Amino acid sequence: MRSYLLFFISFLALYFIIQFVSGLILTATYKPKFSETGGSSVHLSNEVALGGSLGVPFIALVILATLMAWLVVRMVRKVMGK
């Protein structure tokens, strides 16, 4: 039961850390397309783009967080001598 709890907590923590870092990278590398506005800045203040493409697919983040959580559980078991 303890290993399941450890896996669940480490999975959640790692998933949110990966999401946060991914969001930081996407925000830092975002370059708006001014060509779509026709070179006018009038439309920029009136329109907000919501949604769009996902930076890293959801399933890739889940798989990565799962693998990392599994490694954390294995490392803890190795340290504890089980």
Automatic annotation (TrEMBL):
The keyword Transmembrane applies. SUPFAM superfamilies: Transmembrane di-heme cytochromes (SSF81342). InterPro entries: Cytb/b6-like_sf, Di-haem_cyt_TM. The chain crosses the membrane at residues 5-28, 48-73. Keywords: Membrane, Transmembrane, Transmembrane helix. This is Uncharacterized protein. It comes from Mesobacillus maritimus.
